[in-house]
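Data deposition worksheet. Section B asks for the primary sequence of the deposited chain exactly as it was used as input, without tags or linkers unless they were present during the calculation. Section C holds the resulting structure in token form. Section D is free text for depositor observations; keep each observation to a single sentence. Incomplete worksheets are returned to the depositor.
Section A, Depositor: J.P.
Section B:
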Amino acid sequence: MTGKAKPKKHTAKEIAAKVDAATTNRGGGKAGLVDRTGADKGGHAKFECPVCKATAPDVKSMQIHHEARHPKLPYEEDKVLNLHASTAAERAKPGIRGSHKK
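Section C:
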């Protein structure tokens, strides 16, 4: 027995919303990893901040990020890393966190 104002069954709208949430790729998990990281083949994250390694889709967004997160450092557009660059030499390789290796 249910209480007052509680429907006994799910509505068609609620079921459709659950099906949509379960079957639509929202960009999370392994399915959206390429898109978030800006890999060579696809991905919206094209530029990477040289200070904190945050990614942005365009130079203007990177400039806004830099002014908000690193206000004491001057913004130099030539130091922003292009993740979609064709040569691997332009891209900085990630290091091991906490390591003193060079």
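Section D:
The chain is about 25% helix and 5% strand.
The chain has a mean pLDDT of 76.
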